[in-house]
């Protein structure tokens, strides 16, 4: 991590284009701009943020995507690169507990910092759970050191780089699933769910996501869980402000329609929907990799990522999200609540294998007005309820299913979450189904988290940050290495930017990307 603010480097006159203003794209754009390139960030929609969009209507401010903020040092690092301090632009409030988890039998746990308050609750579920939890956290600490600090910042552009980490992966038994790992520590089925559900946060199935993804409980414990005042979108705005102060240009509402490639396969810039060409020697795409390759790169340049290979990718599940503004409050709510279904394995099978509507909803409910009342008009409440659903493959007709899904979600909140009469308090209502993820954000098959995080789609097996097919093209975002979630996409932006800087003969940006840069530099010289 960077210890202090840095002075942005002198201008080089070199041009870069970043396609897409999600977290990964903005992060890469800031790094390249601070390193002396002239960067234009081109976004298809009218607002930056991508999945981290916002609804601002009738006095309500409702974040539409990521709201559970971990690893804030990755954001701070971007401000430091720009010579600024995050604290001057973003106010993060630590949450304790992190979230409440409510099980189908009515039992619940306020999950937060490891200590007596948490252990007392764990012991009620299983005698000896405190010791098991400490052993589990020790294991996840090792995973974190190997999987996040080393692998998370590594550039897996070559098979050699993958082979180099195989011994580490074997040592941490990356071949077993998160659920199998957790089951070695806990007997109680509810505790097994509590410590293994986290892959769902990044679009993975806990019973088949590699156990390296069990690092999330560790990330939460060491770094905390935060609410950004003003919402996640305020963080996006702060980062865009930083990029602009560094001299970066932002073009909104103008989709890139083509990455211009010249023989023998080098990116020369991009073309946008208005017909303009944007020459650049570095092109970074933050769009999902299947979208980047299928829609933006002509087939003759795609020896690795042919349409047939893209078709074979396993994609993450999607989400049904209901965004509500209420004219009354429910003070008993926690900021984050997770309602676990009775038949957890059955629901996972519905989502990932059978791809049918889940037999019962697993629900995540966000009530940010519990921490920041100003996100709603006086006396009101902001609620967003997210139910994981399968991605689009033609089996679910959302026009027909959306009303039933809405009813199921509202019923669960009114009954299980103790919010009677909620439907009569709704004054603002919006919803997002997999169809909107596909049509508004350009995500293939409406997958909410891009490519599913399974071992054979991780690290070198994931579409590389330095394109395999087109020189001068780099990928940043959820579908490339290391994966989805704000920390994952920021790291992807770091790796992509540093690969690009090394390739144009400039020193890489500092911070966690230093490791990446060293490896990328070694490979560029090899
Ligand atoms: C409902 C939901 C809740 C989530 N909750 C959390 C959470 O609590 N914590 C967490 O850490 N993560 C969470 N995540 C995951 C996290 O939000 C995502 O992994 C992350 O935001 C994705 O960022 P990205 O860099 O991949 O870019 P994206 O957000 O996917 O943005 C990509 C951008 O590229 C643009 N684009 C695409 N094609 C083009 C084109 N041709 N031309 C120009 N622009 C283009 C898109 O419009 C979009 O703006 C959540 C995700 C969802 C969907």
Structure in words:
- The model is unreliable at 513-526 (pLDDT under 50).
- The chain folds into three domains: 15-54 and 63-92 and 229-313 and 449-525, FAD/NAD(P)-binding domain, CATH 3.50.50; 114-224, no CATH class; 317-433.
- The strands form five sheets. It has a seven-stranded mixed β-sheet.
- It has helices at residues 23-34, 73-81, 116-125, 129-150, 159-171, 178-183, 189-194, 216-223, 232-245, 289-296, 307-312, 344-354, 398-415, 434-441, 486-503, 513-525; strands spanning 15-19, 38-42, 54-57, 60-63, 92-94, 99-102, 108-111, 226-228, 249-251, 256-262, 266-272, 277-279, 282-285, 318-326, 336-339, 363-366, 381-389, 426-432, 473-475.
- It is 35% helix and 17% strand.
- The protein contains 16 helices and 19 strands.
- The chain is of the alpha/beta class and 526 residues long.
């Amino acid at each position: 991590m960077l210890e202090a603010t840095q002075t942005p480097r002198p201008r080089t006159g070199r041009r870069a284009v970043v396609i897409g203003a999600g977290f990964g794209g903005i992060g890469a754009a800031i790094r390249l701009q601070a390193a002396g390139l002239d960067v234009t960030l081109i976004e298809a929609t009218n607002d930056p943020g991508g999945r981290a969009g916002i609804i601002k209507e009738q006095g309500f401010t409702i974040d539409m995507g990521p709201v559970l903020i971990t690893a804030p040092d990755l954001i701070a690092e971007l401000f430091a690169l720009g010579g600024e301090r995050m604290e001057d632009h973003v106010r993060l409030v630590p949450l304790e507990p992190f979230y409440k988890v409510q099980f189908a039998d009515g039992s619940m746990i306020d999950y937060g910092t490891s200590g007596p308050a948490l252990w007392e609750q764990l012991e009620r579920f299983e005698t000896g759970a405190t010791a098991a939890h400490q052993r589990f956290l020790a294991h996840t600490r090792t995973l974190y050191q190997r999987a996040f600090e080393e692998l998370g910042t590594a550039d897996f552009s070559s098979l050699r780089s993958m082979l180099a980490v195989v011994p580490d992966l074997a040592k941490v038994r990356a071949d077993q699933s998160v659920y199998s790992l957790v089951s070695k520590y806990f007997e109680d089925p509810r505790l097994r769910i509590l410590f293994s559900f986290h892959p769902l946060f990044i679009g993975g199935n806990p019973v088949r996501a590699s156990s390296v993804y069990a690092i999330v409980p560790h990330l939460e414990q060491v770094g905390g869980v935060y609410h950004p005042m003003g919402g996640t979108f305020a963080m996006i705005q702060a980062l865009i402000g930083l990029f602009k102060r560094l001299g970066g240009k932002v073009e909104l509402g103008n989709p890139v329609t083509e990455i211009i490639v010249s023989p023998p396969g080098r990116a020369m810039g991009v073309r946008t929907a208005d017909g303009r060409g944007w020459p650049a020697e570095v092109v970074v795409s933050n769009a999902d990799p299947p979208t980047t390759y299928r829609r933006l790169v002509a087939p003759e340049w795609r020896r690795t990522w042919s349409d047939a290979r893209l078709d074979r990718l396993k994609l993450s599940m999607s989400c049904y999200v209901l965004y509500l503004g209420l004219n009354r409050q429910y003070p008993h709510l926690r900021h984050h609540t997770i309602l676990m279904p009775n038949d957890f394995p059955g629901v996972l099978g519905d989502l990932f294998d059978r791809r049918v509507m889940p037999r019962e909803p697993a629900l995540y409910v966000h009530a940010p007005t519990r921490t920041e009342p100003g996100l709603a008009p006086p006396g009101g409440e902001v609620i967003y309820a997210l139910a994981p659903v399968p991605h689009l493959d033609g089996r679910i007709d959302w026009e027909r299913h959306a009303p039933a899904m809405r009813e199921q979600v509202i019923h669960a909140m009114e009954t299980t979450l103790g919010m009677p009469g909620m439907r009569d308090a709704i004054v603002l209502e919006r919803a997002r189904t997999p169809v909107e993820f596909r049509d508004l954000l350009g995500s293939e098959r409406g997958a909410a988290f891009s490519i599913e995080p399974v071992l054979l789609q991780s690290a070198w097996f994931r579409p590389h940050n330095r394109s395999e097919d087109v020189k001068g093209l780099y990928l940043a975002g959820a579908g490339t290495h290391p994966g989805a979630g704000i920390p994952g996409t920021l790291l992807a932006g770091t790796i992509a930017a540093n690969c690009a800087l090394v390739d144009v003969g400039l020193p890489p940006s500092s911070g966690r990307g230093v490791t990446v840069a060293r490896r990328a530099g070694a490979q560029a010289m090899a």
